UniProtKB/TrEMBL annotation:
Endpoints of the signal sequence: none
UniProt cross-references to InterPro entries, sorted A to Z: RibonucZ/Hydroxyglut_hydro
Origin superkingdom: Bacteria
Family matches, as SUPFAM superfamilies: Metallo-hydrolase/oxidoreductase (SSF56281)
Keywords: Hydrolase
UniProt organism field: Thermotoga petrophila (strain ATCC BAA-488 / DSM 13995 / JCM 10881 / RKU-1)
Cross-referenced Pfam families: Lactamase_B_3 (PF13483)
Xref: Gene3D superfamilies: Ribonuclease Z/Hydroxyacylglutathione hydrolase-like
MF terms (GO), sorted A to Z: hydrolase activity
Protein name listed in UniProt: Zn-dependent hydrolase of the beta-lactamase fold-like protein
Presence of keyword tRNA processing: no
Length: 208
């Protein structure tokens, strides 16, 4: 499995011979627009920094609703959550997506705005790779992000949706999240997994 980070909440997941792009952003966000072709695009919610599927190359299937889907051996499950701690009254709904392929489970939390409930944790189950927002303001912040990672017993924790030199939003940097862990590792914009991860680690990716 190959994971590429394009910035914000946008990743490409390559598994089972297919490419899935999550939460593509538009030009106003600040990051370079990804040059990527996808078989599937998932959108956690319909805000401009998460739903620019028209900028993704290829005849992509767009999944923007809760439900269970199968695409050439990849199982995709979308679960309804909220974009804020007030059951959506401030910013609406959010979809958490779980992707399973090549024996690895990846969970993308989108713009989750609250700690997961016990029922939601049970529905998602333990995850191998967690893509978690940590920047606060519009999503959960560092402490809530760590709590969610603990609840899901995530092995590889990849922070997203935080302030960088590119982003034009006023979010926290990733440093506030990293302070909650004893160690972490930095990689480039690509992470490859050749087997199911066994040890917990925090991986900070960089946009190239």
């Amino acid at each position: 499995m190959k994971i590429t980070w394009f910035g914000h909440a946008c990743f490409a997941l390559e598994m089972e011979g297919k490419t899935i792009v999550t939460d593509p952003f538009d030009e106003s966000v600040g990051y370079p627009i990804p040059n990527v072709t996808a078989d599937v695009v998932t959108e956690s919610h319909q805000h401009f920094d998460h739903n620019a599927h028209h900028l993704v190359k290829g005849n992509s299937r767009v999944i923007d609703r809760p439900g269970t889907y199968t695409v050439n051996g990849v199982r995709i499950k979308g679960m309804e959550t909220f974009h804020d701690p007030l059951h959506g009254r401030e910013r609406g709904k959010n979809i958490v997506f779980v992707f399973e392929g090549e024996g690895i489970k990846v969970c993308h939390l989108g713009d989750l705005g609250h700690v997961l409930t016990p029922a939601q944790v049970k529905e998602i189950g333990e995850v191998d790779v967690l893509l978690v927002p940590v920047g606060g303001t519009y999503t959960i912040g560092p402490k809530e992000a760590k709590e969610v990672a603990d609840l899901l017993n995530a092995k590889v924790i990849i922070p997203m949706h935080y302030r960088t030199k590119y982003l034009k939003f006023n979010l926290l940097s990733v440093d506030d999240f990293l302070k909650l862990f004893d160690s972490y590792e930095r990689v480039g914009n690509i992470l490859e997994l050749f087997e199911k991860p066994k040890e917990r680690k925090v991986v900070v990716m960089e946009v190239q």
